[in-house]
Amino acid sequence: MTLLDRKKAPAAAPPRPAGPTGVAAWFRDLGLGIRLAAGGGREGWIRTALTAVGVGLGVALLLTAASVPHLLEERSARDQARVESRVPGGPDAQAKKSDTSVLRINRETEYHGRSVSGYLMRADGTHPALPPGVARFPGADEMTVSPALKKLLDSPEGRLLKERVPYRITGTIADSGLVSPGDLLYYAGSDTLTSADGGHRIAAYGNPEGGKEMPPILIVLIIMICVVLLVPVAIFIATAVRFGGDRRDRRLAALRLVGTDIRMTRRIAAGEALFGAVLGLLIGGVLFLVGRGFVGRIEVWNVSVFPSDLVPSAALTALVAVSVPAAAVLVTLAAMRSVVIEPLGVVRGGRGRRRRFWWRLLMPVAGLVVLLLSDKVEPYATVNPYPIAGGAVLVLVGLALLLPWLVEACVNRLHGGPVPWQLATRRLQLSSSAASRAVSGITVAVAGAVALQMLFAAVGDEFNRLTGQDPSRAQFYTFSEKVDPEAATRTIQEFKATKGVTAVIGKVEVYVTRPGKYPEDAVQPTTSLIVGDCGTLRELARIGSCTDGDTFVVHPRNDKEMSDWVDQTARKGKEVEIDPGAGRKPMRWTLPADSRTVVARHDPLGEDSWGIMATTGAVDPSKLPGATTQTQIRVDESVEDVAEYVRNTAARIDPGMRVASLKSVARDEKYASVQRGLQVGATMTLLLIAAAMLVSQLEQLRERKRLLSVLVAFGTRRSTLAWSVLWQTAVPVLIGLVVAVAGGLGLGAALIAMLDKKVTDWWLFLPMTGAGAALILLVTLVSLPPLWRMMRPDGLRTE
Amino acid sequence: MIPAGSLLSADGLHKAYGRTPALDGASFSIHPGEVVAVMGPSGSGKSTLLHCLAGIVTPDRGTITYAGRELSAMSDAERSALRRSEFGFVFQFGQLVPELTCVENIALPIRLNGTKRKDAERTARHWLERLEVEDVGAKRPGEVSGGQGQRVAVARALAASPKVIFADEPTGALDSLNGERVMELLTEAARSANVAVVLVTHEARVAAYSDRDVTVRDGRTRDLEHTA
Amino acid sequence: MSIGHTLLGLLESGPRHGYDLKRAFDEKFGHDRPLHYGQVYSTMSRLLKNGLVEVDGVESGGGPERKRYAITEAGITDVGAWLAQPEKPEPYLQSTLYTKVVLALLTGRSAEALLDTQRTEHLRLMRILTDRKRKGDLADQLICDHALFHLEADLRWLELTAARLDRLAAEVGA
């Protein structure tokens, strides 16, 4: 029924005539194992405790992972509850004015790299709709803030933000109105906000239809991340079950001496493992519950979580509860196959049994084949996640299986070298399996991370618009809908006066049409009229010489069709019409006949503007109805907090002004959060693996206490032994990293091919390999103090 | 009161582990090429005496002089260097590095002194031959018998051409035949190379290979030197 | 083993009758071989002749001779010299050594020094035998080994006795 029953008992073991058989024997032996694990003296307890803590850590992570679906659901639900309710008639439609309707403007801003959400709101009636978590509608110049924002504003760090959000705090937003405890959000009241200022009227909050469905590519990424993070956890648990295995084997040998047979010893070992695993489950549960309490106070890479959101799904919890002890028993039984426990000692069969290569290669290759054969993921089709997850798991687990063989094959070819190197390689040659087991966890984590990074880079243009913006010409862009006769000039002036600002390009833009009546099916020729000073116009088009009062017709580059379209409206010497909206009478303006025709150039935003351009001497921008003001701002980036000064100025000019910083790449928020999740997970996984490596390293040092003392007696330098410890960790980790990088690149390329994309960057593995190197150093450094301690002569005294 | 012509001597050594005194006024001296047995019941402090003499443990009080240098005045690094270049060690068990072959084990102290691997291993093979275990050179300690292993250990102690060999119950884990052969080989090689041997043992037949014996009882030495 | 020295040693603690001497000897040393009366009197007459004991007094009355013996100064010196001199290491020495240890304890001399001297003597012989063995042929080796093993057994006994001197002193004194 299991592995061990198929295994033939050696001829030496005489058949036992009496005693319980079958299930009863199983229970008796398991029980004995549990008793040994629980009452095996100090040694036994240390072993059980190590296993239990190791398994516990793994279980805590698994439970956290099992909470992710619920977490995402809850967060998304709260997020949807606070968006405005949709009004029929398209995305831009506004609600009707009523007693409950609210006029509001989004004042989202960025502060020290974190995004701060905020709304300026004005109630239309006496019973305005309240956003979730807000008890009272804020009065004018008052605001209700999230606890995290309150803390930030109260701290010295929030000084500049306070200028931008100058409202009096009169309340806090309850958790039900926040996605995460770290949310920076405020709702401020106003008694002056109008539609003309860009205000948007809403009737209620909450979007019952739920948010946008995740794009398939994101689903693929999330599946991959789960695999990448959970496989190492599984490997870690398997490693933890083996903690102290050598000692256990010696104890079992003593049991053999008093008459247990081989099957019984295996069952006893299984019982011990079971006890450790069950204890680990309990510890894991406690760790999870305790950690859950702290989680609300922790923020890593701008990710924070409400403890109440961390509820593992019942099915997944049950799966963890059953599979962890089962895996512990299976791993123990498998590990004991290579060991023969004789009454007088333990014989390791490990060396006689050569690791076979082919079946280890089979798995990753099969995984790649699955990935390559499965259908391409269409951008908006529903994804079948199973082949992706299956293929990725096969590749990653296959890599973990390939590693021990590879480590053995490589290490056996190493000889010679200085003494520390010789000590390390010889040690690895004699028993590389313990090292490769822990390292295989790293391999999976790094390979997965490399593949994911590649995938991120490749699918980047889905999420990362390559903006074409040129940050060397301007670093900020503002946009304001506030219609104010002096907006254009005042905006430019104020920005120019802001600390750290070196240059401002400001333009006022309005749409102009060719006057006349047009049939319904024809499009009225339209183009834009851009007003700015000569300096601004020079940034937008190749105008050559310019004096105030000049006007230009600007054609796009290399686009005859569009140039003709522009010319249909911008007829030199003829009038154009400017529609002020709201049913008012259109305004007319004549394009001077002496206007020159010039070609557009990329502005610092990376965009081309064309149409009619006029200097402020030719058109008074304050007379243009319905115009928008845009500025592009260049700053001296050496001025500290220059971005915050710019944003503060913007907020002062117009609370609804949008400020964007120009970067070559703009990141999609959802994509960014997925990547952050990967970073958090990979860090935790690597730390976990470092812990596993450390435990086996310390265990090994403890076993060699006497030998270390002898070497010290010989006059061996501490550095010699330290180096040998370093090499002993470094060699398998480096081999593991090579496998991981190769496998990760392969897996990444396969996944990218699945998505029908091209590999954009082959060098993304460098940071992960750096993390691997840091791990080697960490494990070595932490092993050094115990090593020094064990290098004392006490070990020479006969126990 | 250092006896004239002595290579290594100690006087008035005191050493306690916690509250338990291990040495309580022990003295010792050995001449070049001399084999001195340190005897005494278990727990009497003889191993501690050896550890102090070898500079592995620093005594709480007392002086240890090696070739005119005061051991307690040396730094840890200096004492390590001294042990590497001037001393050799044989212990009862668990002293060979299990993953190195026997030749590599013997070559280890020579290499620690900075000799090249090839040369060190050539010397190591020569000593394997001297100790009549030339056929175990390529084997690992786990694959050889206790007697062979102990000869490898003796070879290792002698290979770096030390001035003093410290042997702590070198035959403790061997049967009498193997033990005697190891003692014969050790003392012969030491005498012919003029190496002093500090031999800690509780066995009279092993001590009989010495030139002189010192008894330790309750941390105090009784040097009943007999003009043999 | 020297009965003369032993009887002398017993007299050191005070004058005794011949009958008492025999009883004390049997009790302390003659576990399996009680002393004959004849042996006592012949020994005592030899010691009298050598001036190591003297007659302290004679009790009247019937029965066998009831002479009381006392040790002389010469006798005490003789006992001391005997105890101080190590025995030639040879097989089956224990009874002599045991007697010497007990007498040393009885007479307030250092039993520990006695044992140490004996140990050194044993080791000296063992060194000689080991040396001979190393140089000799197989026959020599076997013969020497035989002797060595016996000497080793003696040495172990010496060590064990040394470790139990306190208890022995208490028992002898009782």
From TrEMBL, chain C:
InterPro entries, alphabetized: Tscrpt_reg_PadR_N, WH-like_DNA-bd_sf, WH_DNA-bd_sf
Top-level lineage group: Bacteria
Domain called Transcription regulator PadR N-terminal: residue spans: 7-76
Protein name as annotated: PadR family transcriptional regulator
Organism: Streptomyces sanglieri
